[in-house]
Specification:
alpha+beta; five-stranded antiparallel β-sheet; four-stranded antiparallel β-sheet; 18 helices
């Protein structure tokens, strides 16, 4: 069952009492709930929905049901009014829809749109400067609260405002065109039901509400809208409710902090939760991810930014806990400085080591020769109480170093707190240096994705990773230099630049082609590491190179509507703007061998090139319900498929050139591919952590990219 309105209100109320007060501008947050046979409705099709004094009545083939609390009960006392009979046919075609409009009857049929005035029948041909339509299958006609006449047909949708038609197809943002019904909202918006979900048009924009994220079934038979804007939808498998709620971003952040603390905190580690009953968050149980360290670090960074922006003592307590958890991942392992992926109790309910036996590893090696055949993958801690997962990857390191720098700057205040950060950062960095810039596992061999060495970059296995991994290694050294103050890390970085050209490789910090080399979570690693690399760099020549690297990375993710990536990019670009304004790069005779390079970078990258409105839009539109749902957007009319050779045929973007909005995609995690049109993030069996709102929100507040 989806997150109910009552459930949300119950959670929100104590948050507003116990947490800091929230201020800021309100926006509309849509919250969905599905009612099925579990709530008293019959199994199968609900043919109609209507409202009597805003009380919903659902019609099945044989009965009428009334909602009482959260349960639907058969009723004989409330009978919905039947629509007045209209003509059955016009010009031999069956009437599909009709509405009264300006003393006329507007009728939609399979053959067209008609106006009936007295005995006169006139066929209407909507047209504007782009389209001239002889409509077919006009399934919807309605009049909105502003007095405009609307229709929905195979050609698209449109409305008549006075004497002017406004017409919409996929090119104008209409997602689908097989309509079944429609309804007018009290605020001037309109809703269309279809065979594949519901479509809202409001303030000039279309929003698509389909899949179990929004509805119990995609086939919508009828829509009714209450005075407060709550939308009720009769579907082939129950009733859907979409309720608009006024929220501030601060209140939304409070809600997600509570969600993480209640359902996603396992011994201090932050990860998704498994749902024992599909779509039911009340059935949650703790789960482990492959990257508990990274996700705990991201939550810790969110709370560190929150503390830096607000001084809230609760934020410091949560950031402190995340730091201790991340440090525990380092302290528990076989060798100083090697961070584990995961820590679980020794009596964990899953036989984790049985899942990664030698036979499994050998099978994986057939398609991935670099996969490690290491056993056990979950060694036991020295005290025998815990298991920790090895084969740690660059993902984990990116999360650790990103968090440690932010935590050191914003949260660690006492000498003891500062020393703890210095020790763990020094330990990890020294491990990498000691092993030739490699993460070395308990078997004495490098991990699958933990090689940052020059030898790896010069091999057939690692040449494609050298841009990202070179930049990451330089970033780790910058964090270590900043936190510990030890000049040896500067000397190591200098060696990597002068002897092995790591800074040159870093100009291309991410692979973008061929498709098999491109994974979306590398965008996370790239931008998180660039953040630390640039913020802790003091050499103006390197800052110019890294600013160019940032722009190269940004060009390939700028269309994804990802609030976290947008926040990282804009905060760093704004800092560069401030440095240019302060004449930081002038008079230093930079790049004497090419005196045009420095002014070129300053001129071309002086200001951020992102659309700052996307951060706010994505934060507002991210659903409160973070269950993972399967969503297939390949049928949409407003999608442009990726024409790049060898690309996945199920990747694409909206007609505006950007990824579809976050609440219309099959994921809410901010380390996924926004262009993936077919995606399932657990298919109703997992709930994801609110970090993916909290981190970009508090980061944006701290860097003054948005108002709190």
């Amino acid at each position: 069952m989806k997150l109910s309105i009552r459930f949300f209100v119950l959670l929100l109320t104590p948050i507003l009492v116990c947490y800091r007060p929230s201020f800021g501008q309100q926006f509309v947050q849509e919250v969905a709930k599905s009612y099925t046979f579990e709530n008293g409705l019959p199994q199968g099709k609900i043919s109609g929905i209507s409202l009597i004094n805003d009380v919903p009545l659902a019609l099945s083939a044989t009965k009428v049901y009334e909602l009482e609390g959260q349960t639907w009960r058969p009723t004989t006392t409330r009978i919905p009014a039947q629509p007045a009979p209209t003509v059955a046919q016009i010009e031999g075609a069956k009437v599909l829809s009709s509405v009264k409009y300006q003393n006329s009857l507007i009728v939609g049929t399979r053959n067209g749109l008609y106006r009936l005035s007295g005995k006169k029948t006139e066929r209407l041909f909507p047209s504007n400067e782009k389209y001239n339509w002889a409509l077919r299958n006009v399934s919807v006609v309605l009049v909105d609260s502003k007095g405009r006449l609307w229709f929905g047909a195979e050609e698209g949708v449109g409305y008549l405002d006075g004497t002017k038609w406004h017409l919409f197809t996929g090119k104008e943002g209409l997602p689908y065109n097989q309509f079944t019904c429609g309804a007018a909202a009290p605020n001037g918006g309109v809703w269309f039901g279809s065979t594949r979900g519901a479509i809202k048009f409001e303030n000039g924009l279309f929003n698509y509400r389909f899949s179990r994220r929004w509805l119990p079934d995609d086939f919508v038979n009828e829509i009714a809208i209450a005075k407060d804007g709550t939308v009720w939808l009769a579907t082939n498998n129950g009733v859907g409710q979409i309720k608009p709620m006024a929220l501030t971003l601060g209140q939304k952040a409070d809600y997600f902090t509570r969600q993480v603390e209640e359902r996603h905190n396992r011994m201090g580690f932050i990860a998704h939760s498994h749902l024992k009953k599909t779509f039911d968050v009340a059935s949650w149980e703790h789960a482990i991810s492959d990257n508990d360290g990274m996700y705990t670090a991201m939550y810790g960074a969110a709370q560190a930014y929150r503390y830096g922006a607000t001084g809230d003592p609760q934020a410091k307590a949560l950031a402190d806990r995340c730091f201790k958890s991340c440090k525990w991942l380092v302290d528990i392992t076989h060798e100083p400085g090697f961070p584990a992926r995961v820590i679980i109790p020794a009596d964990w309910h899953e036989a984790v080591n049985d899942q990664y036996g030698h036979e499994f590893n050998k099978r994986v090696q057939q398609s991935d020769p670099m996969w490690k055949d290491i056993y056990p993958r979950f060694p036991k801690s020295k005290d025998g109480k815990y298991l920790w997962k090895c084969d740690t990857s660059s993902d984990e390191l990116a999360g650790h170093f990103f968090f440690y720098g932010i935590y050191y700057d914003l949260v660690a205040k006492t000498p003891e707190e500062k020393k703890a950060v210095q020790e763990v950062v020094g330990a990890i960095t020294d491990h990498l240096i000691r092993h030739g810039y490699k993460l070395v596992d308990h078997d004495g061999k490098v991990t699958r994705w933990g090689d940052f060495s020059p030898e790896y970059f010069n091999s057939v296995y690692g040449y494609d990773q050298r841009g990202l991994n070179s930049m990451m290694m330089l970033s780790f050294l910058n964090v270590a230099k900043h936190v510990t103050g030890d000049r040896k890390y500067d000397l190591e970085a200098d060696k990597l630049r002068k002897q092995y050209n790591y800074h040159i490789f870093a100009l291309h910090p991410k692979e973008y082609f061929p498709p098999e080399n491109v994974v979306p979570w590398d965008n996370n690693l790239c931008l998180m590491s660039l953040y630390s690399l640039i913020r802790y760099e003091t050499d103006p020549s390197l800052l110019l190179m890294y600013r160019q690297a940032l722009e190269n990375a940004w060009l390939h993710v700028s269309k994804q509507r990802n609030a976290f990536w947008d926040a990282v990019y804009q905060s760093l670009a704004n800092e560069f703007t401030a440095q240019v304004d302060q004449k930081y790069f002038e008079g230093k005779k930079l790049f004497a061998e090419n005196r045009l390079y420095a002014p070129s970078v300053v001129e071309n990258h002086y200001k951020a090139a992102n659309n700052p409105a996307f951060i706010l839009e994505t934060l507002q539109r991210m659903p409160l319900d973070l269950i993972g749902y399967a969503m297939d957007n390949t049928h949409r009319l407003d999608v442009v498929f990726d024409p790049t050779p060898r690309q996945d045929p199920t990747k694409g973007w909206g007609t505006d050139g950007y990824a579809l909005p976050i609440d219309e995609r099959g994921h809410v995690r901010q380390d996924r591919d926004g262009f993936a049109l077919q995606l399932s993030e657990g298919d109703g069996n997992d709930e994801h952590e609110g970090t993916f709102f909290l981190l970009p929100y508090y980061m944006s507040v701290y860097h003054k990219l948005i108002q709190p």
